[in-house]
Design a protein that fits this description.
The chain has a five-stranded mixed beta sheet with strand order 3-4-7-5-6. The chain has a two-stranded antiparallel sheet with strand order 1-2. Strand 3 and strand 4 form a beta hairpin. Helix 2 packs across helix 4. It has 274 residues and is of the alpha+beta class. The radius of gyration is 41 Å and the shape is elongated. The protein is 58% helix and 14% strand.
């Protein structure tokens, strides 16, 4: 009996020893795995830090380039209100033009945009026509609006373009062709006297036919791309002045051409024409 007790105790001790050894081996294995994962994580961390350092260096480099370009841009260009950007070269040309303008016309030019408007108007008048009574030019936020008297473009009661208009239409076509992205609207306007003939049903009809005739001349004779052109008739409903005198009615009979120029190309073109 005593012998059996000793054997039992030895068996328990042996079993306990085996269990402890298995736990030890398992813990040792877990420790090795943890160390391995730690080393792997450290390596990955160092790789990520290296990549981040390269990215930060590139960002710094790009920022330096952006700031450098901005400095160059700021030194070479000026903003014109909220509608355009003008190079200093163009600004110099504009100032040169303004020295030729009647001082009375500059009295109300209090901003850079006002000065641009005066300069463009002056250069267009010089380039397009010497007769201010036939051509009236206004500029609003760099949009050029050219009003051409019908007596220069058409014979009375006709929508066929007169040969007297060749020079002005050529000049206008040069301006339009100088900027590929430009869109141009040609508007026909009449006075308030009604018309009803075999050729024209009313003033709407006359104004549209006159606008279309000008558009066709610009396209067919002066090679203006047709996709740039819009023909529009306004009848008598957008008068410049009251239709109460013969002289005023003459002012209201007109063709209005609206163009949006690129300022640098526009001034370069005008320089070459003057």
């Amino acid at each position: 009996m005593k012998k059996l007790s000793v054997i039992a105790v030895l068996s328990i001790m042996t079993l306990a020893s085996c269990v402890s050894k298995k736990k030890y081996v398992a813990l040792e294995s877990d420790l090795n795995d943890t160390k391995s994962n730690l080393v792997k994580t450290q390596v990955e961390k160092e790789e990520l830090e290296a990549k981040m350092s390269k990215i930060e260096a590139r960002v710094t480099e790009y920022n330096e380039k952006i700031n450098s370009l901005k400095e160059v841009n700021d030194s070479q260009y000026s903003s014109v209100g909220d509608v355009a950007v003008m190079s200093n070269n163009t600004k110099a040309k504009m100032r040169e033009t303004l020295t030729k303008v009647d001082p009375a016309l500059l009295a109300d030019a209090t901003t850079l945009e006002d000065s641009i408007n005066v300069a463009i108007s002056h250069n267009l008048k010089e380039s397009i026509s010497d007769d201010d009574n036939d051509v009236n030019i206004n500029v609003d936020k760099t949009v050029v609006m050219i009003n051409i008297s019908d007596k220069l473009l058409f014979n009375s009661g006709s929508y066929r373009v007169s040969s007297k208009a060749n020079n002005i239409l050529q000049k206008i076509a040069d301006v339009i062709n100088s900027e590929p992205s430009m869109e141009v609207m040609v508007e026909g306007h009449t006075d308030s006297r009604t018309i009803n003939t075999e050729m024209f049903q009313d003033n709407w009809d006359l104004s549209v036919k006159r606008a279309t005739s000008v558009v066709r001349i610009l396209q067919d004779k002066y090679n203006v791309a047709p996709e740039k052109l819009i023909a529009s008739g306004r009848s008598s409903y957008m008068p410049l002045v009251d239709n109460d005198t013969k002289e005023n009615r003459s002012k209201n009979r007109r063709t209005k051409i609206i163009i949006i120029p690129n300022l640098d190309k526009f001034f370069a073109l005008l320089d070459s024409n003057n």
